[in-house]
Write a structure and sequence with these properties.
By secondary structure, the chain is an alpha/beta fold. The protein is built from 16 helices and 13 strands. Helix 11 crosses helix 13.
């Protein structure tokens, strides 16, 4: 039997590659006759570049601006004129200790620097994975890094969403010249607009450390950003209302202004990984993520994998750290069974600390079920 292992990361515990490796070890230990194929996946957030590298793309290393302005060492994946960049790898929320100050100051500038690096290297198609951002700046930092000029007080305009309340003018004439010949693909699982009660500040600001006052100020900054941009781009308000504009603290808005097309991140990653070729003939697909819950049903990797596997006639089971889905709900999502670490270890802290060995036990359990 051949089993395709296509999990996402267990956030805060294991990368997708490590999850697949531990599952493979457990499966083969219980059934040495099994053939396993490891294919880590992602949904556009953290792990997207890792999945592209696992699919055979080249790693490109560089230093760029981190979420609070500090230099960080980061990477993206490239293959001739194609590149995959990941916001979480350069301006990610995991790089800060979220509080009121970081929520106000965090910038997307580093993402623009990475995109610019890929453009300079010759990329004409760039996939931008946008999950896991620290910033709520509407993509202003990203656009500034790509050549946009933002004006505010006489002392200049600092980076960050809070500073956008002082924005007075935007000049887009200096944008990177290669952008005109490039195609951007916005890969994510969030369809929020930029502004309003369902927008970037209101919904995701609190996750980034923003209290009620900071959320209000960030919302005001984003609204000012749109109003001032509308002087240079008459369609700015229309773009701000589009699905996905509120993704990644509004980086979705910035990418859409640059002509990006918005696609579910897991679909993009599965294409990059040539999932259709790898799943052909697989007797079983094992996917998963750290927490399998109702949110998983809306664009997350496990359900995307299950749907793609079903199209090729392969059944799918899932592994996770914990789950709140009923068996019926899981089956409706295309998952024949769900195996959680909490099934073999009730202590959640130990599940996080010892996820690898516990996943091997789950792998052995799945092998026994075969």
């Amino acid at each position: 039997m051949r089993i395709l292992l296509a999990p996402d990361k267990f956030k805060g515990s294991l990368t997708a590659s490590a999850v697949a490796a531990h599952l493979a070890a457990g499966l083969r230990r219980a059934r040495p006759d099994l053939t396993t194929d490891e294919l880590p996946v992602a949904d556009g957030g953290e792990g997207t570049v890792e999945a592209a590298l696992a699919a055979g793309m080249e790693e490109v290393l560089l230093t760029a601006t981190g979420p609070l302005g500090q230099p960080v060492r980061t990477r993206y994946a490239a293959n001739e004129d194609f590149a995959v960049v990941e916001m979480a790898a350069v301006t990610g929320l995991q790089m800060v200790t979220p509080d009121e100050g970081t929520a106000r100051r965090a910038t997307s500038r580093g993402l623009g620097e990475v995109i610019g690096h890929a453009l300079d290297r010759g990329a004409t198609t760039i996939v931008v994975g946008i999950g896991g951002s620290a910033s709520t700046d509407g993509g202003a930092g990203m656009l500034a890094a790509l050549g946009a000029r933002l004006s505010g007080t006489r002392d200049g305009l600092p980076d960050g969403g809070d500073a956008l309340r002082k924005l007075t003018a935007v000049d887009l004439t200096g944008l990177h010249p290669r952008l005109d010949r490039a195609r951007l693909v916005l890969a994510g699982d969030v369809d929020n607009p930029l502004l309003g009660p369902d927008g970037a500040a209101a919904v995701y600001g609190p996750q980034k450390g923003a209290g009620a006052a900071a959320v209000a100020d960030l919302e005001a900054g984003l609204a000012t950003w749109v109003d001032v941009l509308a002087q240079a781009r008459p369609d700015a308000r229309e773009v701000a209302a589009a699905p996905g504009a509120g993704a990644a603290g509004g980086v979705g808005f910035g990418c859409l202004l640059l002509g990006a097309g918005f696609r579910p991140g897991v679909e993009v990653v599965l294409e990059l990984a040539r999932f259709g070729e790898r799943v052909a003939g697989a007797d079983l697909v094992v996917t998963g993520e750290g927490s399998l819950d109702e949110q998983s049903l809306h664009g997350k990797a496990p359900v995307g994998v299950a749907r793609a596997a079903a199209a090729h006639g392969s059944p799918t089971v899932a592994v996770c750290g914990r789950t709140t889905l009923s068996p019926d709900r899981a089956r409706q999502a295309g998952l024949r069974a769900v195996h959680a670490l909490t099934d073999v270890e009730a202590d959640v802290e130990r599940c996080i600390a010892d996820a690898g060995p516990l996943l091997e036990r789950l792998g052995a359990r799945i092998a026994a079920d075969l």
